[in-house]
Amino acid sequence: MTDVHPAGHSIPHSLFDSTSLASRAALAIWKDSMDAIYDVRLCVDHAAFQARAEAYHFGEVVVTAYRCLAQTFDRSRARIGRDGIDHYTLQFCLSGRHGSRDGAGGAEAGPGDLLIADLAQPHATCTSDFDSLNLTVPRRLLAPLLRAPDEQNLRLISGSAPLVALFRNHLIGLFAAAPVMSVSEAESLVAPTLAMAATVLNTDAPERSLHVVDPLLTAQIHRLISDRAVDPELSAEGVAERLGISRRKLYYLMEPNGGFTACVRERRLHLAHAMLRDPTQHGRSVADIAQSCGFSWRTNFARTFRSRFGVTPREARALAGQYAPSPAEDLMKQHMWEWIQQLR
Q1: Beta bridge partners of 157
Q2: Are residues 49 and 171 in the same domain?
Q3: Looking at the structure, do residues 228 and 178 belong to the same domain, yes or no?
Q4: 284: domain CATH number?
Q5: Which of 52, 67, 100, 203 gives 20 to 30 Å between its CA and that of 210?
Q6: How confident is the model at residue 297 (pLDDT cuts 50, 70, 90)?
Q7: Within 10 Å of residue 240's Cβ, how many Cβ atoms?
Q8: Which of 132, 137, 127 minimizes the C-alpha distance to 52?
């Protein structure tokens, strides 16, 4: 069955439970729903399929709990190019095992361990029958807090570490308390939850540098970039002046994230990607979309876009056009799957 209820002032809640469905119907809904993010293949007899997924929307992040049978999860370059989703999912394995099929990122996660998935990067994983608790976060919120934001994909952190255990218990507590939280209470917990997550991920992180940055100031810089990405007057000088810091300090703060120019380019690429996938924008040329997002079409847009997403702008538009949601997915898109897709 499926259910969603933002009753009163409680936070939005979504539930999928296969127990009341025939196995074939349940599997169809599950695969169609997960197809919003992953290609999924079951590793057991389809007749035995059962799953439960429950989620709460905390305003800017989504917390989900999954219980399902052994299966594989694939996220390819083509899929990334089609959907443009670049969130992080921080998954605690509560029972069973989950890890990379090619051995990337270390051993499999077992009970209590933390496995990080960077949805902007391809990966292929497999699980045993397992239970998990997951925090899905937009990149714009977490990346500025990390020392190595692009080096987290399929990273495994042992659940025996004290900070990891503290973070795990925090998420368990969030999930348990969510049914009686108000929207304002839930939203007020996002910032401290992300601060705790960043502390865990920055401990023994695969650092590219030894920078010690101001996370709040860095987050302000990213917010300004996000808000003014299409402004042709956007510049490092202007942002530095707006925040009352020197241009040199701005460059220093942004260096762990690839630099100011790289961050502006990344935001503009995602805006262009979203417009290319938007059916209401199909009447506009690729060149026009590129220019409106701050790119010079003739010089670098197509090459930069392909380097980032693995497909050309025209291929991204074509791939989005090929995606026709099934009735089962239409039902589930009212729930947690749509929430995760729409996080930005």
Answers
A1: 114
A2: yes
A3: no
A4: 1.10.10.60
A5: 100
A6: low
A7: 19
A8: 132
What is the tally of structural domains in the chain? 2
Q: Tokens 């052994």 belong to which residue?
A: 70
- The domain spanning residue 67 has which CATH number? 2.60.120.10
Closest C-alpha to 70, from 29, 127, 137: 127
Query: For residue 102, what pLDDT is reported?
Result: 74
Write the DSSP assignment of 198-262 as a string of letters.
HHHHHTT---S------HHHHHHHHHHHHHTTT-TT--HHHHHHHHT--HHHHHHHHGGGT-HHH
Please report where in the chains the tokens 């997951």 appear, as a residue.
134
> How far apart, in whole angstroms, are the C-alpha atoms of residue 26 and residue 161?
37
**265 in helix, strand or coil?**
helix
Claim to verify: residue 129 and residue 17 sit in the same structural domain: yes
Do 34 and 134 reside in the same domain of the chain? yes
Assess if residue 337 is contained within a domain: no
pLDDT digits (tens, 9 = 90+) for 212-234: 456 668 778 887 888 888 888 89
Domain that holds residue 149: 13-183
Q: Mind listing the pLDDT tens digit for each residue in 12-40?
A: 999 989 888 888 888 888 888 888 889 88
d(CA 152, CA 76): 17
115: in domain:
yes
Please give the Cα distance from 53 to 129 (Å, whole number): 14
Six-digit token pair at 201?
């991920």
Q: How many CB atoms lie within 10 A of CB 13?
A: 18
CA distances in angstroms from 23 to 47, 54, 332, listed in the order given: 6, 19, 17
Q: Which of 99, 186, 83, 203 is nearest to 135 (CA)?
A: 186
Structure token digits, residue 86: 């670049």
Asked if residue 336 lies in contact with residue 56, where contact means CB atoms within 8 angstroms, the answer is no
Contact call for residues 113 and 158 (beta carbons, < 8 A): yes
- Of 25, 77, 162, which Cα lies nearest the Cα of 33? 25
